[in-house]
Every structure is written in C-alpha cells, then in structure tokens.
Amino acid sequence: MLERSRNGRIVFVGDSIGRNQWESMLCMLAAAMPAGSRIYEQFGKPLSRHKGYLSMVFADYNLSVEYYRAPMLVMVDRLPPARDGAIRRAIRLDALPRHAARWAGADVLILNTGHWWNLHKTIKSVAIHARSGNYFTVGDRFNMTTDIKEAFRRSLQTVKDWALTNPRLSKSSYIFFRSYSPSHYGNGTLDTGGSCADQWDPLTMITIESDQQEHLWINTMISNVARSMRRRHGMNNDAVFLNITYMTGLRRDGHPSRHREPETPSDAPEDCSHWCLPGVPDTWNQMMYGHLVSMGYDTRSTKT
C-alpha cells in the first residue's frame, strides 16, 4: 500500500471512531516502513490533539495520512452566548466544516458519521438544557422541529453535492463511506455505568435488537448516498459503502473497556465504543485496501 500510495494523500474525516481507524492505518503503514525512515506530523502538532486535524507524513513515500475531526460531517457552529442561553450550537445541514477545503485533493477519502446523530446529542439536548442545545439550520434559518432522520439525510446530501462539484476532488479519487460501528455496553450505557469488562470471546451471532435496529436507518441512508454517486458525472471510480457493522458487532471483546488512556480518572466510564489496537479497525483497513486493489488503486499512475 505504501508503494501504491506514493506521492498521495489518504484522508479520514469523521468522529473519534474515524480517528481510531486513522490511528490503525498509521500503525499498519509504519510497521512496513524501512528502519530509520522518517514519519512526522506535518504541522508540528502533538498526536494527543483531538480537535481540528492532523497530517502524518511518511517521508520516504511523500505520502500524507490525514485525519479531520467532523463528527457530523457538516458544520457545527458555536454561537455567541445569548442572555437567555437560548441557543448554544447550530448544526448547519447545508454547509461543511471550514477545514473541508483540505479534504479536496485526497486520493483516498474515508468518511464516517452516525454516532453523533442521535437524540441525546441533538434534539434531547435542547430539552435537557431548557432550549439551549443544538439546533438544525439551513442558511441563517433555525428549524426547531426538523426530524433527526430528515436532518441526517440533508447533511449527507450536502456531502454528496460537495463531492460531485468540488473541482479539486480528483477524477481519480476513491471515496469510502464507512458504516456504523456498534458499541457493546451491557447493564447500562456510557452515562449509567454500562460495562464491557470481562468479555473475552467474540459473539457467534448478532440478533437484531432494538439498539441494532436503531442503527439500520443510518446505514441505509449512508449506503443510498454511496450508491447514488456510483455513476457520478466525470468521476472514474465508484463511491464505496464500506459495510463493517455486522462483523464489528460480533467483537464485544475488542474494546478498551476500563483500560483507558493514561491519566484517565479511575471513576471514568468504561470505553465500549472505541477499539483496541491492534484490533478491529485493522480489519476495516484491510477490507478497504482490498477494495482499492480491486479498483486499480495506484497513485503512481496518476501522479508522475
């Protein structure tokens, strides 16, 4: 993959689980680099940074592997505080984050979203904070009644329109929409003491329980967007729906659980959403690379 990616850019955009996949890709590629090779962050930023973006350069191959934090893919604006605390943030369904200009020009673009598209991070936060939560907007107009599914559909349409019309997105770019990554909280949720500790074995089968059913609509909408882009005008390669949901759902044993980052407080919730490395995201990247090879991915043929 390093050789096929020479002089290229691999760009991950999404939430912290997208970052998890980006970290996996860095580890896998770094393990294949010759001894003494130089790998560095392009802008001198620490890898502990979780906001904005990071760009790791594999100097021997003139390759950058980049991560851009955009949990909802569209822009989330922090608004000036009002005296009555009426509105804290606006989820702009018709606009991408400001750093989206940097996504363009990617040879491989991997997008993920869905985990923040739930009632607790959008509509319910409004009720909990006495109408001081996250509102959906189109243009400068707030909509207090937009259904979350319709808002998600509108946001994906914005991403699609950008991909189809951005002149800097190369005709030879490969675009992936990764599906939803299930979590495995038992006996509660993240906020109510849920746990995945002492899970040593994968599941052998997943039943479609209520929480799995809740995520089906997210995957359906993501899949539909990828499918609708497959015959996009002027683009040589298909958009791919990278479906990892079912296989990932089996791996209840693959989470950090109580083994959190250094200096995490001892009473912090368990992490049953993100993944240990080496682990599950490595398989996502192997699947993605299989798709790339099958589609003839090789930046050397387009950049001489």
Give the assembly state of these chains: single chain
**Secondary structure tally: strands:** 11
Largest sheet, strands/sense/barrel: 7 strands, mixed
- How would you write the strand order of the largest sheet? 2-3-4-1-7-10-11
Order of helices and strands: EHEEEEEEHEEHEHEHH
Radius of gyration: 20 Å
**Averaged pLDDT, please?**
87
* Structural class determined from secondary elements: alpha/beta
Shape: globular
Counting DSSP H or I runs of 4 or more residues, the number of helices is 6
The CA-CA distance between the termini, in Å, is 17 Å
Residue share in β-strands: 15-25%
**Which bin fits the share of residues in helices?**
25-40%
Low-confidence stretches are 125-132
Describe it for me?
Helices cover 26% and strands 17% of the residues. It has 304 residues and is α/β, with parallel strands linked by helices. The protein has a domain at 71-181 and 206-249 and 275-301. The protein has a seven-stranded mixed beta sheet with strand order 2-3-4-1-7-10-11. It has a four-stranded mixed beta sheet with strand order 5-6-8-9. Helix 1 packs across helix 6 (280-294). It starts with 8 loop residues before the first strand and ends in a 10-residue tail after the last helix. Mean pLDDT is 87; it is low at 125-132.
